[in-house]
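> forwarded from #structure-qc
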């Protein structure tokens, strides 16, 4: 299939009785888990659109993370707890952790054996069997985002600081982050951590040599960042902006270069997502548009534009990169497949 000629084909549609606040695909790509802002948790069949209520995580779901190659679904909620759910709706959730602080950065290690999340200034580590492994301390600020970097390293950020944590030794290394982070995206090659900041800039930290750089000039807070599968491109969008800005990290990198600016939305871009494998970028906005792109040198034209029946919210690709899920504030969940045209 030629990615340059790719298009989107509408598939099944589901509707949940809640405001979608988080979603994640099962490893086999057959099921989408959706967490509601009022606490309902659903499993949606991506082929038929059939939605099944898995349980409740009241008063609201914050984040979801499905165990890679496994059957466990982790949820973080506004009650300060982190829970593990079996794929079978008959099994009750297991509460791993509870705190007055909201858990953030819920993430499984790539092998699916360790779950990490931040709680206040600490990072909590749990095994897949639900047993507590370790608490990483030594962070000077409350943590807002977390990402794994390989087997034993974690990148965490909070107001004014980026940390490199060692899950095996408990060592914590701190670096300056010049602002309040709204995002944390680690490149798939594990070389660069990018954070969108509230002051309208992006902070890049090169994790091998610890060098940092900064890009500014956005219209508002940089609330969306995402890396392409080959780590060459970083797609970004700021609050209130209808355009997507893509930085090219090929060659000497983005410093001193002009980024690609993608224009097909007429209102605010609400979400963006790259294929986990492949070169396609999807964006969705308040203008009811779902747009497919293949960014690259001289390539700024949308490949396809799908008009929805209302504003879009979150989007995410299936693990096989062939299907796209779109969650709308109305509770509609729409599935699209990728085809050559």
């Amino acid at each position: 299939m030629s990615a340059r000629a790719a298009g989107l084909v509408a598939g099944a549609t589901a509707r949940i009785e809640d405001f979608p606040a988080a979603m994640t695909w099962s490893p086999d790509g057959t099921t989408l888990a959706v967490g509601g802002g009022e606490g309902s948790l659903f499993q949606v069949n991506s082929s038929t659109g059939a939605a099944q209520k898995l349980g409740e995580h009241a008063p609201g779901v914050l984040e979801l993370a499905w165990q890679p190659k496994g059957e466990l679904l982790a949820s973080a909620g506004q009650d300060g707890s982190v829970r593990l759910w079996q794929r079978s709706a008959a099994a009750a959730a297991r509460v791993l952790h509870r705190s007055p602080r909201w858990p953030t950065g819920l993430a499984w290690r790539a092998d699916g054996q360790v779950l990490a999340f931040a709680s206040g200034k600490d990072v909590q580590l749990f095994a897949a069997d639900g047993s507590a492994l370790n608490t990483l301390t030594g962070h000077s600020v409350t943590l807002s985002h977390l990402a794994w970097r390989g087997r034993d390293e974690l990148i965490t950020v909070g107001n004014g600081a980026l940390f490199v944590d060692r899950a095996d030794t408990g060592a914590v290394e701190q670096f300056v982050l010049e602002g309040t982070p709204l995002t944390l995206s680690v490149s798939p090659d594990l070389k660069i951590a990018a954070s969108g900041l509230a002051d309208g800039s992006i902070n890049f930290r090169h994790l091998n040599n610890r060098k940092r750089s900064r890009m500014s000039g956005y219209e508002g807070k940089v609330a969306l960042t995402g890396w392409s599968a080959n780590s060459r491109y970083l797609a970004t969008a700021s609050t209130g902006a209808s355009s997507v800005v893509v930085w090219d990290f090929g060659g000497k990198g983005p410093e001193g270069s002009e980024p690609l600016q993608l224009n097909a939305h007429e209102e605010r871009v609400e979400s963006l997502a790259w294929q986990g494998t492949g070169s396609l970028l999807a964006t969705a906005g308040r203008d009811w548009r779902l747009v497919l792109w293949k960014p690259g040198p001289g390539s700024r034209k949308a490949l396809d534009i799908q008009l929805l029946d209302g504003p879009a919210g979150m989007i995410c690709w299936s693990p096989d990169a062939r299907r796209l899920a779109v969650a709308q504030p109305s509770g509609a969940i729409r599935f699209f497949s990728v085809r050559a045209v």
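QC bot note: The mean pLDDT is 94. The two ends are 9 Å apart (CA to CA).
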